[in-house]
């Protein structure tokens, strides 16, 4: 009887640990990615963050479509939480805060997948595109 009670408590503790771990993972992936433009690169912080050096960029395009219209494809290693797309998808590396709203910035790199960025609203995305267009030839 005592052994069954110990197994029951161990099961409850294990379940709590798993639930807390999943909760932390969901919080980590749902935090918005921050995009910072430095003197020589675009730094994207947060889950699946990266640094894109201006020297590696071949082309930057402002697409009027949302990422849902463009089509992210299957998720390879990333998160699709509440309209936020982040990580590696078939289309490329995504940092999309609102997948249902355009425009979307597409960055084609010399090596590696394309990067797609879409911020909370169209004004923010257009502002970031203007800033990037000014520093990338």
> What is the ordering of alpha helices and beta strands?
HEEEEHEEEEEH
Mean pLDDT level: 82
Low-pLDDT windows of residues: none
Measured on Cα atoms, how large is the radius of gyration? Answer: 19 Å
Count of discrete structural domains: 2
Quickly describe the structure.
The protein has 137 residues and is of the alpha+beta class. It has helices at 2-30, 67-70, 122-135, and strands at 34-37, 41-45, 50-53, 57-63, 75-81, 84-89, 92-96, 104-109, 115-118. The chain has 2 domains: 1-30; 33-135, no CATH class.
How does this model look, in words?
The chain is of the alpha+beta class. 34% of the residues lie in helices and 35% in strands. It is built from three helices and nine strands. It has helices spanning 2-30, 67-70, 122-135; strands at residues 34-37, 41-45, 50-53, 57-63, 75-81, 84-89, 92-96, 104-109, 115-118. The strands form two sheets. It has a six-stranded mixed β-sheet with strand order 4-8-9-7-6-5, with helices on one face. The protein is elongated, with a radius of gyration of 19 Å.
